[in-house]
Design goal:
By secondary structure, this protein is α+β, with helices and mostly antiparallel strands. The protein has eight helices and 13 strands. It is globular.
Length: about 300
């Protein structure tokens, strides 16, 4: 895997670009069968979901089988890396590529500290209220409401968050107060249109208990290498067309018309920057056996625990 830092024009660090090769199907992956989804980790069902028609939300069931691929993060590591999302991103990248159970597969990914989730908080709303409202409720069954919470503004833990009395949460609450809490790792899954918590369930619970904004690292796919040349050509072509348009206006109306570089230049820069940062849909593999296989897994998972809509 090749890693490279992504920055803005002013040098501000945005995230870590991960170029993954030779990893066909990860151990943590999404399978699809019509409107039904299965997230599996090392052949264990982690989450089953049914997209509701007409695309207003998703019924789901968690199985308690998810296991984080990130080893426990020691307090001294938290202190050493505190305040540096860039260093944390490089550390998490090692776990993503080197540990079983990761969702990384061949392609380009972004591991970023920039998130729209904190920006949604109203000034009059506490961090505890805001982040609690972001969490998808329900265990083992629940519902991701696309009608009320659109554009990926929900967080789905892959296992229930521990309570404030949990020993891990108590330890992390101290780190929240010290400003040394390690980031919560989120994975955006387009088929669910929400963020899954890959690592940091107890850390997220501690931040909520302390009414503090948790540090975050977001993982999502970006434009694959095979598409980059065409996307770059499109961006450059747009830039050239804009300059030609302004040149035509200048020829018609005189030199008082600007040459267009002041507007087309920044647009080109944004388009090229988006090639490293813009979200791409999550890959989903066809589920062998299709919907019949999904229903069979659902029956096994729900035996004695109620019923998931199939």
């Amino acid at each position: 895997m090749q890693r490279s830092d992504v920055t803005r024009d002013d040098g501000t660090w945005v995230g870590l670009s991960l170029d993954v090769r030779g990893r066909r199907r990860p151990e943590l992956c999404v399978f699809s069968a019509g409107p039904r989804l299965l997230i599996s980790q090392s052949s264990r069902p982690v989450l089953l979901a049914v997209v509701e028609e007409p695309l207003q939300g998703v019924d789901f069931r968690r199985t308690d089988e998810y296991r984080s691929f990130v080893p426990p993060l020691r307090a001294d590591v938290g202190r050493a890396l505190s305040g540096s999302p860039q260093r944390w991103a490089h550390r998490f990248a090692r776990y993503l590529i080197g540990s079983p159970g990761s969702p990384l597969h061949e392609g380009r990914w972004l591991l970023s500290c920039e998130s729209p989730l904190p920006r949604r908080r109203h000034a009059a709303t506490s961090h505890a209220e805001h982040w609690s409202s972001m969490l998808v409720e329900g265990h083992p069954d629940g519902y991701i409401d696309w009608f009320l919470h659109s554009t990926s503004f929900e967080v789905l833990p892959l296992r229930p968050l521990p309570g404030p009395g949990d020993s891990r949460v108590k330890a992390y609450r101290k780190q929240v107060r010290e400003g040394t809490l390690p980031p919560v790792l989120l994975w955006w899954v387009s088929g669910l249109d929400c963020h899954l918590v890959l690592d940091g369930h107890a850390r997220l619970a501690a931040a909520i208990a302390e009414s503090s904004a948790p540090p975050l690292l977001h993982l999502h796919r970006t434009v694959p290498h095979d598409d980059l040349p065409a996307r770059i050509d499109d961006a450059v072509g747009f830039y050239e067309d804009e300059l030609a348009r302004f040149a035509g206006l200048r020829a018609l109306h005189g030199p008082t018309v600007p040459d267009g570089t002041a507007t087309a230049g920044p647009q080109l820069a944004r388009r090229l920057h988006d090639l490293d940062t813009a979200k791409q849909p999550t890959w989903a593999w066809p589920l062998p056996g299709g919907e019949d296989r999904w229903r069979h897994i659902a029956r096994e998972v729900t035996t004695g625990r109620g019923r998931l809509r199939t």
